[in-house]
Structures are given as C-alpha cells and as structure tokens.
Design brief:
Elements lengths: L1 E6 L2 E4 L4 E9 L4 E9 L6 E6 L5 E3 L7 E6 L4 E6 L8 E9 L4 E3 L3 E6 L1
Parallel strand pairs: 2-11
Antiparallel strand pairs: 1-3, 3-8, 4-5, 4-9, 5-6, 7-8, 9-10, 9-11
C-alpha cells in the first residue's frame, strides 16, 4: 500500500506561482511512475504531468513551458512547480502513483485557485 498526501495549494493571482508537493509513504520502494492530475468543476480529471523513475517527463500541452514536475526519491516526495498561472489552471490537483504490481494510488487532492 502507498499513501500520498498533497500540499501547497492555495489562492494566487494570474501570473503567479505555486509549488505543490506530494509526500509518499508506505510501500514506497514499489512506486514506479508518478504524476499530477487535475479536475476543474464540471470537467473530467485530466493529466497534467508524469515522471518515470529515471526522470523522464511528460506534460499536457496546456502546461508545457509553465509547469515543471520533479521527484526527490531521497525524500519520497513529488513536486509540481507551477509558474505563469492562469485562471483556467484553477482545479483540484491530485497526486498519482503506480507500483510494480500495477496498482494505482491517488492522494486526496489540493485546491489551486487562480484569480484574474
């Protein structure tokens, strides 16, 4: 079992920055790929960014050049640095992890609100 706890969300003005963190605990040695997803009101949950154990990253087109995903394996923490935030980035952001048995885990989410 893996437990994921997000933090770092909040209210920010358009153009501002936030850094989200996701602390992993439990069977952390079994974690493989990790990622961030988001869900805006009335919309489906969507991929924001993913990162493999080797550090390869993938981003949604809407956040490329503005968001950076990273992981600190020593601290068992996943990060999402979000710059040049836009009102359309407003959503609940969720941390996600896969393990070696292909189980999938989700955090409880953290709210990001960008005011115009």
């Amino acid at each position: 079992q893996v437990r994921l706890v997000e933090s770092g969300g909040g209210l920010v003005e358009a153009g501002g920055s936030l850094r989200l963190s996701c602390a992993a605990s439990g069977s952390i040695g079994s974690i493989t790929a990790m990622g961030w997803y988001r869900q805006a009101p009335g919309k489906q949950r969507e991929l924001v960014a993913t990162i493999t154990p080797s550090g390869s990253t993938n981003y949604a087109d809407s956040v490329k050049g503005r968001f950076t995903i990273s992981r600190d394996n020593a601290k068992n923490t996943l990060y999402l640095q979000m710059n040049s935030l836009r009102p359309e980035d407003t959503a609940v952001y969720y941390c996600n992890a896969d393990d070696i048995l292909f189980y999938n885990y989700w955090g409880q989410g953290t709210q990001v609100t960008v005011s115009s």
